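User: Predict the full complex structure for these chains.
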Amino acid sequence: MSVKDFQRKYFDCIRYGSKEFRVLPLEEAESRLSIYSHQFLFNHYEILQKIFPVTQKFLGSENFRFFCKEYIEAFPNQSIDLHLYGQGFGGFLDARDEVEYDFLRDLMDLEWNFHAAYYLGSDFKKIITSEFPLYDLYFHIKEESPLESPEAQSVMICLKELKPVIELSS
Amino acid sequence: MNSISGVGLSYRSQHHKSLLSSSTQVKPNWLELLTDNYLGYGLPNQNLRELALYYPFVFHGVGLNVMGSDPFDKKYIKRLKELFSEFKPAWFSDHLCWTSIEGAQSHDLLPFPFQENFLEHAVQRIHKIQDLFQMPFIIENVSAYHEFPDSQMSEVQFLAELCKKTSCKLLLDVNNIFVNVSNQGYDLEQYFEYIDTDMVAQIHLGGHAKEGKILIDTHGSKVCDEVWEIFERFIKKVGPVPACIEWDNDIPDYDTLSGEMLIAASYYRGDK
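Assistant: Here is the predicted structure of the two-chain assembly.
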């Protein structure tokens, strides 16, 4: 078998569960191959978790994981750079009937913009010096926040009825 | 600036302050940067500029798709060249595996059978990488969770032949050797038989996890005793090749990594 044919068949096997491949040990073939299938999903899921921590908090871990899986299956990454994955996730969730939060799309766009500012170096000033309305939630961003990393951000989301301010701090 | 020798550390941003602080007691001699975290132009790259004032670098990537059958990605190559031109690493490395096919990315290190046609393919790909970059490139052995029934040689025979035919040296991941010996029943002694003194440029030291009967290459825990023993045997055979503590998941605090670095250093001194 040529290198290319092998790779096509193997990729189909781990992505779509095709049974074409014999691997050793034979009696454990399915479980051994499934390690790669799980890792495929997990590696994509992990980057979505990193980029959208607030969305995950809002939706809950189980719901977030469910929608991540749906998104990964529908829109697998085509770029070598995994950090570029997920820009369309907000639009994907916006189109889902099960997701009822009208502001979620804006929230996810904000999270993506923070990620882009941190990783890609896109225009950060526009984000950190502005105060902009998102539906009925106002994000007030402290100018002195260093925002060292997305992982360091903690966002308290409070609906308008409870508290008026969402603070972004490192 | 020190050259790449002794104990290094795979850099994670969580440890940035510790690495730059004058009060940190244990520091690596050099840093390994994960190439694919710096393909953008944002804050991570600014952090590297700060580190470069104090540490020599090597770069370690996952995106080259060394064993892939797709042409090398031109944008990726261009970005790597920019990075290497700015930070002047002593060498760069990637894995002896494939990661994508016809544009579909797995973001995983996928295995292949150890056959003559795959060896020929590997030789061509590594020669191409050497031509493209004109700087030292080394190749890492990966862990695998199964074997292929139609392999014609062992992993280490494949590695040794590849090194001979390309003059490409190894980034020898001793944890991956242990994982493969455990999962596949490979003969550990064959690794010592086939890996010669001048084949190894760098060593990786990391941990693994156990799921049932299988060891999973998580690089998310301390180096186990068996892997330290393999490391000790290798540095006695191949000499004090620089070794890097590689902790990729469940990143611990800096003190934990310091402990691992101190253990590695003690093997170089022969204290252990």
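Chain B has a mean pLDDT of 95.
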